[in-house]
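Please produce the structure of this protein holding zinc ion.
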Amino acid sequence: MKKIILFTLALALAVVLLPALIVFYRGGVYKPPTSDDDTVSVYIKSEDKVEEMKIGEYLKGVVSAEMPADFEPEALKAQAVAARSYLYAHIDEYAKSGAPEEHKGAQTCTDPAHCKAWMSEKARRDAWDADKRDSNWEKISRAVEDTGGVIMKYGNDYVKAFFHSTSSGKTERSVDVWGGDVPYLQSVDSPGDLQSPKYAGEASFTIEEFESRAQANLSGVNWENGIIGEIKRSEAGGITKIIVGGVEIKGTQFRTIYELKSTNAEIEVTDNAVNIKTKGYGHGVGMSQYGANYFAQQGMDYKQILNTYYTGVEVSEKA
Ligand SMILES: [Zn+2]
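Below is the modeled complex.
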């Protein structure tokens, strides 16, 4: 009898205490960062290694890799806060769900297709003309330091601050591009993009080339009813759905297959060619970098720029 009681007690302890301990342990391990002096682990893809560095150092590497140094200081600051918010959102997410496999356990990575582009200070300086190295690096550093610890939140969540080079003049809603409706990633006017050097794009294919790309990427294509069928567009004008060779695909897939600068495409089919003209460069969601630079030239500060591109977010005060 005693044995049974002891066994039951031990079992109860194991069932109740163990999960409580695990929760306590995990909760105890995760502390959200509060300043740019806190440490972040970065998986540097080109070197296949994880490096620990200060958040400020990481952010300087992101801003300098993602935005031209000759952009306006307020645009660079907006970029720094966008990158910091995106980082915080990832750190928070991975603390709960575990870091993705691509990261080798780190909190962020340097692959622009996965997280954000990043360059070390040395690599960045070497890539600039010698007479610009000091002034460019100082300008980038100031954008990060002048916004030290500033982040964007929507309710209790850190803002996943997506950004892109140039929109079509209107940014895209995330739901139209990726399918998930995010309240702060709506379509907004971005008038400066019309002056961006990356605004207009072109791609031309012979009919044969166009068809063979479709055949290599899609199953079930046939050309009986023409090359292009119905096209559905977002409010901003990007292609959301398009019928190619009788198969309906997403605008993002169409962009990938034909290596287009954006999904905002006008397609002209002639007797022997398919000519595509695009507006904008990138996915079009969140802040447009060229649009941000234009707004900065018009006198907006970084908070106004961020509040323009990220609907309803709160930009924190400098720590
Ligand atoms: Zn990553």
